[in-house]
Each structure stands twice: as structure tokens, then as C-alpha cells.
């Protein structure tokens, strides 16, 4: 089971003795004593007044100033009314504690509450020397209107900025379901030629002054650059998820550490890295960036989708990165980073940037794993640019239709790369794998890849330090590396090429299944023609187990027997594109049963962010929304849902499954429910109350299920509440999820943003 940042002390089936904590207004259980007062504050920009108590919806506060002048404590919630707009900066004070963060969220229905920095503040939302905060369900923007001079409106601006300078480790940040857009940040480059400076664009600014504006920025600094403290400030356990970041410059998401490079500064070297064991290197730790949609289609100054630097231990997964500049996902001065299940497309050169790649493992990056990504239609597909030193594994990716190099070899001689079992489909360039000069002196092991080109003699670079082995060369005539062991020259027999499926969007998530068109049949020359690789990750692009016989060539391993269409890595139901009204059975692959009530698409929380309401009114049949998997899901199956009850329970029966998770026998193995003002789950055969819920508030439930270990973890709003719990009944594979009520369980529940993912 994958670890998740901001993980509280493990709860082995809620080990006794337990005491109640409140997280985001919900009573959780932990092995620590009861914490602070856990107060909820309401803020309404229209009907509020700062002289009110703020303690209920009838007496809300009004201004950002009131929030900013208040020091909050663990478990407190700051709820901003939907539809409200504030101009200025949101900077509440105080810190939460582990297991009981301070939460910024919304209440009521309508558009997300909006914080508009309007270019009057550097950071529209700011946290500084604070920890254990969760920010969700808000809209953030910070832009100066454009003038007649392009770039003249750019400045030192950010949307959400988390920083500090107190020489402590600051823990526990969750940014969830936010919409950050139109931040007019300046573009400062580390190097380059000052002769190319232009309004809003500056070259040779050095490490600390560069690349630290954009939508969401996590960085740290020092109180006095001329007399820095002995120890850095480190950010630890950060999750950025389920959010949309659009048209923000310099970047969508930035992570950086201070190093002391500016004029007048004393160098501390925390953010730069001389070698892999550099003890002065003090990176941030444990970042997860997942399920986000990042686009810079509407700005000429967006130069990175995700710029992840000065980090040790990070996962970047299941993001859509659309039409950014320079690099879709870039790591730099980083260690132990996994980049997986992302779709990156449309990257181009912007604002003086020299690159236009989908994914880049850049300078001084070690233990980088780039796997299971769909990278298409960029300038370069994957750039390996490990200047100074580094090591990277590039495997089981589908890389297609990039206009310059599908894979660009650009690392220094001290770096090494293992490049295996990727499928490259080139129909837009004269290059497949390209490098030049001294950058070909790095050690590259290139094996089991399908190298297919519709253009004859597309370049495949060679050198004495590049070892090609067991690759398949297909399409037009290609000049193969001489002396390669086990090459295959043949048509791989793609199912359908070129790929015609649509790209991912904010509503759909990454369109990883589009790349399934480049699968091959069981009689393909690619099958059983590769060389087995140790420590290979255990699965192929779609989740098939490695190996079925000898390794296949390319990103897809034959599962054996009659090939069947594989289950997509991610299935997502957002409901946003559906018309409001009755949800018809079969829509988006869902089975709907309206007996005893109704199932309808509703404009909650807004017309642009719809959900489904399951309502039960009579004791007849069952009312449900379910998804059944033709091929049951095995391995690690993650099921995530946003859920809300709109009114409190008063009397009578009241049990809504959110969801039931069943095997092929139809028996419930994992049971999650909202019932009588509580959220409950079965841990084994014991029904456990996880916490209470507040009507009108959205909650995120994520069950991480291991069909191998026969256990599951349960997260509530990103916090682990059940750890390694056993199933209610045996579950060899997940065959169905069912949001369900029957009998006289009258009332309603609202569900949204259902996501199902599968990993080996």
C-alpha cells in the first residue's frame, strides 16, 4: 500500500484506548488526547459583519482583515461562503497539529469562494512559518491587467504561497480541489543571456530569484540573507491534488529551497547540490502532486506545468499537463521522485525558454523513475538532461507524435539512464532517439523499446556509451545501431495507429486509455522478443503483470490467453458535462436504479461543477448508482469519492452506502456509509464510527484496497483513519462499487468526482 504524506499515527483497526479528535469538523479517532477547541467560523462577503461572532451561518464574519487578524488553533475551520468574492490577501494565522489541521473550505452552494489578489499583493493566499493546514474548494487569482506593452504587467505574484524562515520543519499541508488561475507572475531564468531580457522576462537572475512565481508555490527563505541561520526551513508532507491550475506564470506548481545565491547573500547551499551525497543539500521532503489539471494555453508566459526542485521523496501522478511552456513536468536538484500515470501534451517554447518537452529529469536528479505516462504532441517527448550527475529509469511510457525528439539524450558523463519497454511512435519528426556531442558520453542502456517511425531514416543516435539491446524497429526504413543483441525489424501490428482518441481534460483526467491503441496482438513480433529486466516495476502500461513468458518489447505486455481490452488505469466520473435532471442508466458506464426514489444530476455546488443526488422517499426496491467491472480489478485498487449530506438526520432509519465495494459474488467486502449524522465503515466484521459530518459540507473518502494483502486503508479528507483493516468478507477482486440505499432509509446523499485507479 502506498504511503501518503501527512500520515497520522497508524490506527491498527482503531487500536484502543482511543480518544476523539476533530479534523475539519469531524470526530476522528486516534491514540492521542483530545485537542483544542475545534471551532468553525463562517465568512460571507455580502451578508457578513466583522462584529458578528462568526460561529454560525446566521452570524458570519465579512472581511479578509477579520480572518487575517485571527490566530486559529488545531481543528478550527474557516468556511467561506460559496459565491463570495474578496479582493486582497488571505493570510490567517496559527497552526494545526498532526491529525487535526486548520481547514479553509467553503459552505453553501454556488461558485467556489474567490480570493482575488488583483496584483495588489504578492500572494493572494499566504501561509508563513505555519503548519498543518488544509485548503480546499476555493478559487484564487492574482493578476494585473495587461497593458499595451506585452509582459509589462508581470511581477512578483503567486496564487497560493506556502513559505517560512524559522529553521524548523513545517509539516502537513493539503491543497485540494482549488481553482487557481490567471496569476501574472514574472519570468526569471537562472541563466541565459541578458541581451534577451524583455518586459516581464529576465535572464541570469540566479537560483533564488528565478522560477518562484506561479499558481501554487512552496518555498522557504531566511530572515537575513547576509547572516543566514545554521539550519534551513524544510517543508514536509505536502499533498496538492484534485485541482485546476490555469494560465499562471512562471509555472503552475513550483517547489524550491533557498540556497543563498542572490547578490549580498551568504551561500548556504541548501537548494543546490554538488554531488549525490552533498550534506549541504537540505531538500523538502515527501510531496505528492496528483489528479490535477494544469494548462497554460492562455498565457505566453507559462514556462512550466510542474517545476519540482529541492525535494527528496515525491510522487507526481495522474495529472493532465496541457499546453505549457518549456517543460510539462520538470525535476531539478531532486532525489527519489516517481513520475507516473500522467498525460502531458502540447508543450511549446515560451517566454525565452529553450525547451519544449513533456517530462524532464534535469540537473543533479537521482533515483528518478518515469513510468506509465502518455506523452504526445510536445516539442520533445522525454528530455534526460542530467547535468553534473544523476540516474533515471524511463520505462513503460507511450511517447508519440512529438515534433522534435521523442527521447532527447542530453546528460553529462557522470549520469546514467535505463530506458526500457517504451513505445515510441513517430509521425511528426525526423528523430526518434537523439543526442549529440559530449552528451552522448553518458551511460544509456536502451532495451525492449518499440521504435516506430513513419518517416524514413529518423535519427537513432549511437555512441560507445549507449547500449542498445532487443529493440523493435518498425515502419519506414531506419538505420539501426550496429552490433545490437536481439534486434527485431518488423511491423509491431499496432491495434490502431496513429492514435485518434481525444486528450484528457479537467473533467476526464489523463486520457491514458487513448494510448491503448498502440497495443499489439498476441502474434506480434514484439511478443516474447525482449530481454527480461530485474526490478522492472512488476506491471506494464495497462497493469498486466510482468512477465508472461519472456519479456515483450514495448510498453504493453501480453497477459496470456485471448487478449482482452485492458481496464483503464483511471476511471473518473465528474458529471460536469451532463445535463441536469434524471441520470439515465448506462450513462458513462454507470448502472442506475431509481426504485424507491430518484437519481439525478444536480448543479451542486454549481452549474460548472455538478454532482449526482441519490434520493430515497418510499420503501420499494433499492436506489443506487453502481459501476460493475467486466474484468474485476486486482492489485491495489483506489476508490475515491466526494460525498455530502445536505440535511441532518432527525429520526428513523438512515443508511447510505458511499459506497459498498463487492467481489464477483455480490457480497460486500468494504462497506462505507453515512448514517445518522456519522460516517461509518466496517473494519473486519466490526462497524466503526469514523466521525460525525456537518450537513452541507463535502467530505473526501479514499479507500486503498489490496486484493493481494486482503486489507484496506481508509482516508478521510486526506487523513488516515483506518490502517490495514481486514475486509468484511473475502475480496479476490473488485467487481462492483455501489452507492446505495434501500428499505426505509429515507433522505438523500450527494456524490461527486468518483475516481477508480489500479496499480499492481
Automatic annotation (TrEMBL):
Alphabetized InterPro entries for the sequence: Beta_helix, ConA-like_dom_sf, PbH1, Pectin_lyas_fold, Pectin_lyase_fold/virulence
Residue ranges occupied by any Right handed beta helix domain in the UniProt entry: 304-466
Lineage, top ranks: Bacteria, Bacillati, Actinomycetota, Actinomycetes, Micromonosporales
Pfam family, one: Beta_helix
Organism domain of life: Bacteria
The protein's name in its UniProt record: Right handed beta helix domain-containing protein
SMART domains linked to this entry: PbH1
Organism (species): Rhizocola hellebori
Amino acid at each position: 500500500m502506498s504511503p501518503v504524506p501527512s500520515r497520522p499515527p497508524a490506527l491498527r483497526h482503531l487500536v484502543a484506548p482511543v480518544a476523539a479528535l476533530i479534523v475539519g469538523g469531524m470526530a476522528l479517532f486516534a491514540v492521542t488526547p483530545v485537542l483544542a477547541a475545534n471551532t468553525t467560523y463562517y465568512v460571507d462577503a455580502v451578508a457578513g459583519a466583522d462584529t458578528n461572532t462568526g460561529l454560525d451561518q446566521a452570524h458570519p464574519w465579512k472581511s479578509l482583515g477579520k480572518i487575517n487578524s485571527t490566530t486559529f488553533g488545531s481543528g478550527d475551520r474557516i468556511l467561506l461562503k460559496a459565491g463570495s468574492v474578496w479582493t486582497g490577501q488571505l493570510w490567517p494565522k496559527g497552526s494545526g497539529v498532526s491529525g487535526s489541521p486548520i481547514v479553509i473550505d467553503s459552505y453553501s452552494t454556488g461558485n467556489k469562494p474567490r480570493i482575488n489578489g488583483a496584483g495588489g499583493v504578492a500572494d493572494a493566499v499566504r501561509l508563513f512559518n505555519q503548519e498543518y493546514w488544509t485548503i480546499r474548494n476555493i478559487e484564487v487569482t492574482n493578476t494585473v491587467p495587461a497593458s499595451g506593452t506585452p509582459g509589462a504587467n508581470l511581477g512578483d505574484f503567486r496564487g497560493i504561497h506556502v513559505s517560512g524562515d524559522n529553521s524548523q520543519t513545517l509539516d502537513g499541508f493539503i491543497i485540494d480541489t482549488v481553482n487557481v488561475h490567471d496569476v501574472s507572475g514574472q519570468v526569471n531564468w537562472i541563466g541565459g543571456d541578458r541581451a534577451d531580457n524583455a518586459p516581464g522576462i529576465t535572464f541570469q537572475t540566479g537560483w533564488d530569484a528565478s522560477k518562484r512565481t506561479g499558481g501554487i508555490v512552496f518555498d522557504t527563505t531566511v530572515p537575513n540573507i547576509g547572516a543566514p541561520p545554521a539550519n534551513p526551513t524544510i517543508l514536509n508532507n505536502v499533498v496538492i491534488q484534485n485541482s485546476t491550475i490555469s494560465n499562471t506564470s512562471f509555472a503552475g506548481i513550483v517547489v524550491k529551497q533557498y540556497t543563498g545565491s542572490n547578490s549580498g547573500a551568504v551561500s548556504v547551499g541548501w537548494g543546490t547540490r554538488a554531488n549525490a551525497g552533498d550534506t549541504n543539500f537540505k531538500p523538502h521532503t515527501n510531496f505528492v502532486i496528483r489528479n490535477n489539471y494544469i494548462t497554460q494555453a492562455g498565457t505566453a508566459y507559462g514556462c512550466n506545468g510542474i517545476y519540482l526542485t529541492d525535494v527528496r521523496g515525491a510522487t507526481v501522478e495522474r495529472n493532465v499537463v496541457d499546453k505549457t511552456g518549456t517543460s510539462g513536468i520538470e525535476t531539478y536538484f531532486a532525489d527519489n521522485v516517481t513520475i507516473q500515470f500522467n498525460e502531458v501534451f502540447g508543450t511549446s517554447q515560451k517566454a525565452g525558454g529553450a525547451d519544449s518537452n513533456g517530462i524532464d529529469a534535469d540537473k543533479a536528479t537521482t533515483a528518478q523513475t518515469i513510468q506509465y505516462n502518455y506523452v504526445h504532441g510536445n516539442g520533445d517527448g522525454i528530455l534526460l538532461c542530467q547535468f553534473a550527475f544523476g540516474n533515471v529509469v524511463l520505462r513503460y511510457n507511450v511517447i508519440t507524435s512529438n515534433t522534435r525528439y521523442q527521447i532527447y539524450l542530453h546528460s553529462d558523463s557522470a549520469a546514467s539512464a535505463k530506458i526500457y519497454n517504451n513505445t515510441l511512435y513517430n509521425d511528426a519528426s525526423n528523430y526518434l532517439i537523439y543526442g549529440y556531442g559530449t552528451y552522448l558520453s553518458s551511460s544509456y542502456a536502451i532495451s525492449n523499446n518499440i521504435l516506430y517511425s513513419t518517416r524514413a531514416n529518423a535519427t537513432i543516435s549511437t555512441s560507445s556509451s549507449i547500449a542498445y539491446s532487443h529493440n523493435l524497429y518498425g515502419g519506414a526504413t531506419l538505420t539501426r545501431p550496429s552490433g545490437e543483441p536481439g534486434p527485431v525489424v518488423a511491423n509491431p501490428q499496432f491495434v490502431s495507429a496513429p492514435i485518434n482518441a481525444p486528450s484528457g481534460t479537467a473533467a476526464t483526467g489523463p486520457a491514458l486509455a487513448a494510448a491503448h491503441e498502440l497495443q499489439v496482438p498476441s502474434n506480434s513480433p514484439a511478443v516474447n522478443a525482449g530481454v527480461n529486466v530485474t526490478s522492472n516495476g512488476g506491471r506494464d502500461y495497462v497493469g498486466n503483470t510482468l512477465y508472461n513468458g519472456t519479456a515483450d518489447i514495448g510498453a504493453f505486455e501480453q497477459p496470456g490467453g485471448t487478449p482482452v481490452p485492458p481496464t483503464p488505469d483511471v476511471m473518473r466520473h465528474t458529471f460536469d458535462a451532463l445535463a441536469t435532471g434524471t441520470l439515465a442508466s448506462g450513462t458513462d458506464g454507470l448502472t442506475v436504479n431509481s426504485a424507491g426514489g430518484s437519481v439525478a444530476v444536480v448543479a451542486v455546488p454549481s452549474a460548472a461543477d455538478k454532482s449526482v443526488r441519490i434520493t430515497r422517499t418510499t420503501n420499494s426496491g433499492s436506489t443506487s448508482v453502481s459501476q460493475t467491472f467486466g474484468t474485476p480489478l486486482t492489485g491495489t485498487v483506489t476508490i475515491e469519492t466526494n460525498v455530502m449530506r445536505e440535511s441532518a438526520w432527525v429520526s428513523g432509519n438512515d443508511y447510505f452506502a458511499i459506497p459498498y465495494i463487492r467481489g464477483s459474488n455480490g457480497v460486500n467486502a468494504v462497506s462505507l456509509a453515512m448514517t445518522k449524522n456519522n460516517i461509518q465503515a466496517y473494519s473486519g466484521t466490526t462497524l466503526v464510527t469514523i466521525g460525525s459530518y456537518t450537513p452541507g459540507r463535502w467530505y473526501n473518502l479514499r479507500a486503498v484496497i489490496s486484493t493481494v494483502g486482503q486489507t484496506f486503508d481508509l482516508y478521510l479528507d486526506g487523513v488516515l483513519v483506518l490502517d490495514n483493516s481486514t475486509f468484511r468478507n473475502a475480496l479476490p477482486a473488485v467487481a462492483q462499487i455501489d452507492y446505495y440505499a434501500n428499505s426505509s432509509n429515507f433522505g438523500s446523499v450527494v456524490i461527486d468526482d468518483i475516481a477508480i485507479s489500479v496499480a499492481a
